[in-house]
Amino acid sequence: MIVLTGASGGIGTEIIGDLSKLDDVLAIYNTTKPKNINLPNVSFRKVDISDPEEIKSFVDKEGLYLKNISLINMAAVSIDGLLANYDLENWEKVMKINLISNFLFSKYLLPKMIKDKWGRIIHISSTNSAIGAGAYSSSKSGLDGLSKALSKEYGRYNITSNIIKLGVFNSGMFHQLSKKNQKIFLEKIPSKNIGKTSNITNAISFLISSEFVNGASITIDGGAS
Structural domain tally of the chain? Predict the structure, then answer.
């Protein structure tokens, strides 16, 4: 069973169909239900992932039938602002969604994975995690430490934790950028083309099927970094 957060996001919406060809998908959205609700092998659940109690309640309820779990932490939010003027409430919101939710889903699903002696945890990050908005950068950089710790602690149970770092794609946050900033990103890519989401699902499929890839980070950005 694939558990996917961020199912209503630009990239999340695009990859659900391909993921459903790999396994049954339990797709989590926050406020807006995805449009492609009639896909075979896909079930949708509304969860406010900024609320620890809702995450725990979700796992307590759905965990009764979850087996051989591949957790894909796709959900993310970016709130721009200079650090000196950055609002603490926005900082905490970014951390809750981008980093703490990854920790909590992993924490609550790990007992199920340990029981199955099988599990895959995949954190979706960004090649821009070291630059840009301070809260977003900090949250995404924090995934490196979290994933490494998970890989060291639970590899003995055939549970892996890896990161996929994304560049710009034909869905998601890229289209929220100004034309000027889109051009700047494209200039960094040798082919001058943005990525197709099929490259992301190919990487996810590889990580799900690869028990000896653990604690790794895969960059998919067309050679921009």
Answer: 1
**Domain of 179: which CATH number?**
3.40.50.720
User: pLDDT digit string (tens) for 39-49?
Assistant: 889 999 999 99
Start-to-end CA distance of the chain, whole Å, equals 33
Domain that holds residue 198: 2-220
Return the pLDDT at 168.
83
Q: How far is 81 from 223, CA to CA, in rounded Å?
A: 28
194 lies in some domain: yes
**Model confidence over 136-194: pLDDT tens digits?**
989 999 999 999 999 999 999 999 999 999 988 877 666 767 788 778 878 888 888 88
Tell me, yes or no, whether 225 lies in a domain: no
pTM of the model: 0.92
Q: Residue range 22-33: average pLDDT?
A: 91
d(C-alpha 67, C-alpha 113), whole Å: 8
Residues acting as catalytic residues: 136
Distance in angstroms (rounded) separating the CA atoms of residues 142 and 47: 23
